[in-house]
Amino acid sequence: MIALILRAVGVLVCAGLWWWLSSTGHQKGGREGMLYIVTSFGALFGGAALLARPLAGLLGEWASTLFMPGDRHSGPQPMYSIPEGRLAASDYAGAIEAYAELAAAHPTEIVPHLRVMEIYLRVYQDADSARAVEVAALQSIKGKRNRERFANAARLIMAEAEQA
After folding, report:
1. Which residues contact 7 (CB under 8 A, 6 or more apart)?
2. Cα separation, 41 vs 47, whole angstroms
3. What is the 3-state secondary structure (H, E, C) of 105-145?
C-alpha cells in the first residue's frame, strides 16, 4: 500500500514537473525554451515508468481471465456422461438417479435439475413430479443468481410442456 502511495505521489510530481517545464519552455522560446520542452518529456517518461508496473499488473490480471478461468473451474466439474448414457439407453430411472447425485455433489449447478424435469415431462408426462423437482431444486441450489437462472429455465420448460 505504501508503494502505491509513493507511486501516486511520484506520478503527481512528474506531472507537475512536466507542466512547469513545458510552460516555462513556451514562455522563454528559442533554444533555451526548447531545452525546457525536451526536458519536460523526460518527466513524462518518468511518470510513465512509475505507472507501467501497476498498469501492466492490472491489464495482465484482466487478460489472464480470458485464458485461465476463475474459481468456477478450479474444482472437479460435473460428469454428465453417466446420466446422458443412461438416457440414451432408455434407463430413465437410472438417469434421474444419476442426475440427483450430480445435483447433490454440485449444488451450484442447475442443469441436473432441469434435465430431471425434462425427463418427467417428456418421458413420463408427469407435470406434478416436474413441479416437485422444481420446488426442491429452488431450495437446494446455492446462489441467488443460480436460483434465478433455474427459475427462468424451469418456467420455460413448464410452459413448453403445457403447450404440447
Report:
1. 50, 51, 54
2. 10
3. HCCCCCHHHHHHHHHHHHHCCCHHHHHHHHHHHHHHCCCHH
Residue 107 — left, alpha, or beta (φ > 0 → left; ψ -120 to 50 → alpha)? alpha
CB-CB contact of 80 with 113 (8 Å): no
Cα–Cα distances in Å, from 39 out to 1, 23, 32, 44? Answer: 30, 12, 11, 9
Q: What is the mean pLDDT of residues 29-57?
A: 89
pTM over cut 0.70: no
Which alpha helices (H) appear in the chain, and where do they start and end? Answer: 2-28, 30-67, 81-88, 92-105, 111-118, 127-140, 144-163
| Cell numbers that stand for 102 in this block | 450430480
pLDDT averaged over every residue in the chain = 88
Helix 127-140 and helix 144-163, axial crossing angle in degrees, nearest 10: 170
